[in-house]
TrEMBL record:
A GO molecular function held by the record: DNA (cytosine-5-)-methyltransferase activity
Residues that span the membrane, as ranges: none
Protein name according to UniProt: DNA-cytosine methyltransferase
Record keywords: Methyltransferase, Restriction system, Transferase
Amino acid sequence: MGYTTNWQVLNAKDFGVPQNRERTIIIGALNGVKFDFSKLEKQNVIPIKDILEEENDSFEYLEESDYTLIENPKRQPSGLIFIGYRNKNIRIKGTRSDTLHLSRVHKHPNRIYSSEGTRNLVLFISLLKG
């Protein structure tokens, strides 16, 4: 067929994406042309807190009875801090509740993460209550 193919495992975090996600990239070209992966420019990761919106009309505000904070928050490799759980299942408006996620398993769908720990969450909730 005349194609030259080459491949390399690339990580999204090397290209500014706040995810540690490796993917095999395969490039094919005609007439013996080879793709030079070494020419790709790596970029710094953008911290996830820099891209998250601070306010949005679709935000769901939780009552204190809706969540449980853990005593010892744990920083994840992503930089987010695991701070607690929702006390009920997460449901998104407009989706079926029995939808299966076949592409991947969500081991902990009710976990709550923060980029700054529990202090801001508690402060935020107390501000909401007035």
